[in-house]
């Protein structure tokens, strides 16, 4: 299938210093990322804070220009797009920001916030038609039409994120990028928003790119996952394969860091020691070698080339085959009942079980004021 979005060796560097007593430097936020996303899939990007995943998301949508490399959307160049081409990109690719409190203008009513993209991308609509479309969008995300006359401060965090989702849907996009869209919300509300995004992606045929810290969300909502470390993608594969058989030591450490009340198998867990190096001074060779228990002299001197297996799983590690064998010899960790319950909650989002009706006009518990 032809990809809807492609990135080829994309970099984004930010200059630093240059003052009277400071040397000039570069922060390598994104450093040579390549990926391909097919229409209709949910693609996740995970990693520690500061690894560059949010910067990559903004580069993919052209909120930030690339330092080098190419981004293609539907076969058309995103890098350097201007005028009509850039306007078309803004219509087809929309962004959901992490913080629902700061991403909405407090001086604008919900009707104006959701209707503003319609003024830009559907100027032929009359005022009445635009109002009707705003009501339809609000209902689609589980809000009531009369909410259009209220202001953002009158809503809870979960409701504000729903407003942000409705605003993103207004232009009729084909791809939506969510920058940790549920991380600022309460856990119970997270499940509702995850369910909403899953239903919208399925019902509207949307392609989703999700950035998230919660690996339970990633496991049960994503088709494929890319793991980033210090500006680079170190592992990429299907969600099931990556979670069941992680091949990069960093990925294994991320998965083993998931809290588990049942400590069986705890001694075999991988652990990450130390701090992530500064992106302004990345280490030579493999960027993860300063924290990797499997590092050798080869890792300290040579950057590992990405290796792809026949099933499409990519790993950038000199010793991933040896690590994978050792992983298979360990006894799988059992999950606590609490962990299983939470995983089951997220699983419902993609199994079609409704936690909250998407188009319901009946307010849920979080909407009761």
TrEMBL record:
The keyword Lyase does not apply. One of its GO terms (cellular component) is plasma membrane. Keywords: ATP-binding, Nucleotide-binding, Transport. Its main location: membrane. GO terms for biological process: peptide transport; transmembrane transport. Gene3D superfamilies: P-loop containing nucleotide triphosphate hydrolases (3.40.50.300). This is Peptide/nickel transport system ATP-binding protein. The lineage of its organism: Bacteria, Pseudomonadati, Pseudomonadota, Alphaproteobacteria, Rhodobacterales.
